[in-house]
Each structure stands twice: as C-alpha cells, then as structure tokens.
C-alpha cells in the first residue's frame, strides 16, 4: 500500500477518519422547474459532447470495429415473451448493457432482462447515421443474424432507436447474446458494443456499493474512460469512485485510478489539459482525490500542472478571473469555482505553500464581487462579455455546488470560519430553492427538455460538494437534505440493476455513465464524516 501523506489541515483525511467502516451500512436509505431550452452549461459554442474515445483514439476493449456488412443476414423472426420487432415501449425494463462511440456518436445496447429482449440506440449523431443489432448463439464467435432492426436517424433528429429483438431462441432452445452496432452516415467504419446476454441483478451489498459497481461496469479498461459519456464527465465518474473509496475504506477499485491515469496522461493536450479550462479543473480535482487516497506524488504533480495551466489563462477581462476556453475569453462560474477549489486544495496538501493559496484567494475575491452571485444567492452561468454583468443564464446545480467545496477548502486553508458562513448562506439558498428542488427533490433545470451530454453530471457535483461542507459543520445541517436525495433517487430512479437515470424524482430515463455517476454521489454524500464530532 502506498504511503499515507501528511496533510494535517485539509478536509478529506479528517472526514475519512470519521467515516471509517460506519459508511458500509445501509445508512443512506431512510425516510420540475420550468426553464427555457438553453445550451447545456449555458456557455457559447460548447460541443454537445466531448467523447471519450476522442481523448486517446483507442478502441474500447469491449467494442469491435468492422467494415459495413455488405449483405443482410436475417433468420426467421424469433418469438419469446414477444416477437422480434416489438416496439421498445413494450419493454418491461431498461438496462444499459454496454456502449461505445464512433466519430462522436454514442452507440448503446439496452436490454430488458425480464423480456429477454434488447434494442440499440445511436445518439449525438446526424441524419443518415445507422444503428442495428447483431445476434449470436455461440457467445459471439459467429453472427447468426445481423442488421436486426436497422434504423437510420431521420432528418432533423440527432438519434434513433431500433425495435426490440429476442436475445434467446426458445423454440430451438438456443441461448443468445446481442450487440449494438452503428456507423456514421458518411463513413464506412462500423463500431459495435460487446456481446451481452440476459443477466440477473446483484442484490448483495449496500445501495452505495451497488451503485458504484454499476458505475464501474460502464468503465472501459482499454480507453481508461467511461462508455456512454464524455471526457470531462469521466473525470467526475473517476471522482465518484474515489469518493466512495475515501468515504467507506473499500479499496476494491484502486486499479481504476492508475489505469485511467496511464491511458490518458498523453491524451488531448497532455497532462489532462485541453482548450476547455473547466475540463482541466475537473481532472485536477480528480487527481487531488487520487493523491488523498493513494499518497502517490505523481497525481499531485499532475494536479499542480493542471492548476498552473488554468492560472495561465487569468487576465483582466471583466476585472479578473480565469477563462472558460483559451479561444474564447468568456468568464463563467464553473471554471472559476473549480479553480478556487483546486488551488485551495493544493495549498492544503503542500507544506509551506503560499502561492496556490494566494491564487485561490485572488479568484475568490474577484468571483464574489463579479455579480455572478445573484440577489437570491444563486449563481448564474457567467458574465456578459460586453457589459461584464451577470448574464442571467441558468442557475445550474453544479454552479451552486462547486463553490461550497471551494469555500470549505478555503476555510481549512485560512482557519477563517467566515468562509463557512458564506458557504452556509449559499447552501441555504440552493437547498431551499423550489426552482432547483421541486417537491424537495434536486432537479436540473434542463430535465424537462433533455439535458444532453453535460447536464446529467451536474447534480452529482452538487451533492458531492454539499456533502463536503456538511461534514465540516457542527450538527451536520444538510444531512436530512442529503439523505432525502439518496432515498428518493433509490426508490424512484433505479432499475433492478442499480442503474439510475437523469430524474431522481422519476421516471427512470436516459441512463448513462453520467447519470450513474450523479446518483452514486447522491448515495455517497451523506456518508462523509458520519459519526464525526468535528465542525
């Protein structure tokens, strides 16, 4: 086991020491706002998704690449509970069995294990893109049926879904597996998911443990990223796994840390940087978590590199702050909040540091005076580039959350409790907002209209940071709120395989690694510092 670093003044080790094995219990299971459609993140010209495979160019280990089938091979229709070609609306459940990407398109295999049927979908695509199912009765060695349900994205749409097809052939007593395949309409390359058959759910372990296991099932060992979500979302998925290990002491998933690091250190701009400065901030925080867990210096050094890179974009536009993108001088909340938290976190882990604390305080003082915190103590997306005033864009949940973790780290760094007082004012506003919490359930403003690729990650970020603050406060004032999010999502937004969708209040929809990460964080957040007398 790696050495345990000496970090006497920062949050996580103190929380971890208090949590210990208490967090392994069932504990967390106790007891929509209208918004006009906007681009996810509310930031200009942000890609709909920064896909995982684009980071490395590597093929997912669970996927296969092939040329487009030149002929259609279809056996006789198979009938089980339903017959081949049944509509997806007839499915009794939905398990996201696997996913892969090709040229930015997300290809997914879904199974209704109760019906022993599956279907394929393609998203983030263009008209003429195709998706279909293949079926095999020998574990994938040969293909019995190909191009099942072949579907093409229609004009004006970004995705489509096949009909349902049987996995097994009961009439001939054949056990089968399915895979989803797809292609871009203007390319011949084909990408397929892994072959997958009917499964039974795991009912052992706590809700938190099972949520993490379901998240890990979507992890791709070959790319070191998560299938069905993007680059920066994968940083948050890794953070969720690290949060689980830190909060519970369960080190089952340590292998993911090194694998993710080694497979992606030289991806994109190298050292987990790219043109999007917020992306860099997410990875910096993930590697700080990895350092907390393992004590490996290389993770801390990478986090330092990332924070230095973020700081290099600091300028005087609108009076200060770091930028959202190196090619666009937009000043927004998420990027600056991430910087404050990451820089303050580094200070709390580097003996004798003054530089990172000075930078964190510089950006916090600017941010607090920038106007992004509105009169309701909620934080809008950013500043108008012309007027440098609050742009009035969406109050995304993650913008309400990151600042809480940032102020918690600043309080630990400075020993100044006024930062916790400020954090409580902001947390009271966001937890008490009916807009963000209709009927008391955290709801992303984009949920009524679809949250795209980015939005499903946001709520997990919020509860993670609120959990960090809650663990540092006497009396744990947000414990009931956090417990409610964990309980409601478990009861209303979870399938038999412990996969969670985008709506914590239900119904279960749009399952992905991003929605799984968010709901996993909802299960973890009440565990931080459980039983602690600190604060």
Describe the structure.
This protein is of the alpha+beta class. It folds into two domains: 105 residues, Immunoglobulin-like (Sandwich); 321 residues, Alpha/alpha barrel (Glycosyltransferase), CATH 1.50.10.20. The strands form three sheets. The chain has a five-stranded antiparallel β-sheet with strand order 1-10-9-5-6, with no helix packed on it. Strands 2, 3, 4, 7 and 8 form a five-stranded antiparallel β-sheet that branches. Helix 4 runs parallel beside helix 6.
Quick structural overview:
It comes from Actinopolymorpha rutila. The protein has 535 residues and is an alpha+beta fold.
Write the layout of secondary structure elements.
Blueprint: H1 11-19, H2 53-56, E1 64-67, E2 95-102, E3 105-112, E4 117-123, E5 130-136, E6 145-152, E7 160-161, E8 165-166, E9 177-183, E10 189-192, H3 207-217, E11 219-220, E12 225-226, H4 231-248, H5 254-264, H6 277-294, H7 297-311, H8 333-347, H9 355-369, H10 397-414, H11 418-431, H12 458-472, H13 479-492, H14 513-524
Antiparallel strand pairs: 1-10, 2-3, 3-4, 4-7, 4-8, 5-6, 5-9, 9-10, 11-12
Helix pairs in contact: 3-4, 3-14, 4-6, 4-14, 6-7, 6-8, 7-8, 8-9, 8-10, 10-11, 10-12, 12-14, 13-14
């Amino acid at each position: 086991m790696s050495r345990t670093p000496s970090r006497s003044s920062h949050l996580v080790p103190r929380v971890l020491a208090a949590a210990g094995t208490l967090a392994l219990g069932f504990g967390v299971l106790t007891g929509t706002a209208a918004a006009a459609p906007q681009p996810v993140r509310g930031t200009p010209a942000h890609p709909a998704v920064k896909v995982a495979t684009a980071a490395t160019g590597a093929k997912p280990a669970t996927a296969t690449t092939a040329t487009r089938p030149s002929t259609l091979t279809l056996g006789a229709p198979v009938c089980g509970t339903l017959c081949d070609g049944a509509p997806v609306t007839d499915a009794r459940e939905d398990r996201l069995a696997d996913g892969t990407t090709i040229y930015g398109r997300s290809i997914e295999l879904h199974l209704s294990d109760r019906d022993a049927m599956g279907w394929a979908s393609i998203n983030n695509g263009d008209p003429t893109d195709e998706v279909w199912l293949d079926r095999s009765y020998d574990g994938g060695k040969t293909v019995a049926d190909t191009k099942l349900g072949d579907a093409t994205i229609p004009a004006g749409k970004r995705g489509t879904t096949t009909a349902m097809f049987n996995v097994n052939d009961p009439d001939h007593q054949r056990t089968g597996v399915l895979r989803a395949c797809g292609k871009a309409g203007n390319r011949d390359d084909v990408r397929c998911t892994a072959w997958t058959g009917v499964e039974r759910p795991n009912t052992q372990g706590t809700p938190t443990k099972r949520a993490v296991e379901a998240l890990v099932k979507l992890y791709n060992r070959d790319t070191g990223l998560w299938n069905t979500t993007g680059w920066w979302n994968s940083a948050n998925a890794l953070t969720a796994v690290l949060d689980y290990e830190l909060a519970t002491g369960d080190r089952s998933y340590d292998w993911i840390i090194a694998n993710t690091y080694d497979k992606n250190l030289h991806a994109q701009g190298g050292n987990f940087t790219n043109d999007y400065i917020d992306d860099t901030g997410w990875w910096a925080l993930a590697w700080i978590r990895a350092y907390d867990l393992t004590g490996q210096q290389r993770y801390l050094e990478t986090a330092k590199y990332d924070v230095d890179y973020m700081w290099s974009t600091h300028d005087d536009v609108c009076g200060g702050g770091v930028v959202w993108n190196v090619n666009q001088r937009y000043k927004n909340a998420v990027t600056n909040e991430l910087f404050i938290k990451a820089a303050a976190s580094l200070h709390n882990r580097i003996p004798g540091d003054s530089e990172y604390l000075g930078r964190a305080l510089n950006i916090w003082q600017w941010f607090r005076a920038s106007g992004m915190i509105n009169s309701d103590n909620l934080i809008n997306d950013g500043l108008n580039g012309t007027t440098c005033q609050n742009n009035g864009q969406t109050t995304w949940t993650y913008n309400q959350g990151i600042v809480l973790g940032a102020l918690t780290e600043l309080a630990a760094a400075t020993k100044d409790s006024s930062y916790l007082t400020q954090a409580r004012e902001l947390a009271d506003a966001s937890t008490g907002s009916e807009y963000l919490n209709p009927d008391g359930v955290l709801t992303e403003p984009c949920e009524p209209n679809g949250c795209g690729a980015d939005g499903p990650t946001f709520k997990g970020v919020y509860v993670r940071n609120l959990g960090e603050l809650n663990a540092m406060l006497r009396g744990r004032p947000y414990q009931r709120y956090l417990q409610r999010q964990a309980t409601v999502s478990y009861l209303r937004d979870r399938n038999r395989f412990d996969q969670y969708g985008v709506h914590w209040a239900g119904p279960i929809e749009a399952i992905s690694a991003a929605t799984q990460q968010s709901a996993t964080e909802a299960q973890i957040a009440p565990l931080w510092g459980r039983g602690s007398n600190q604060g």
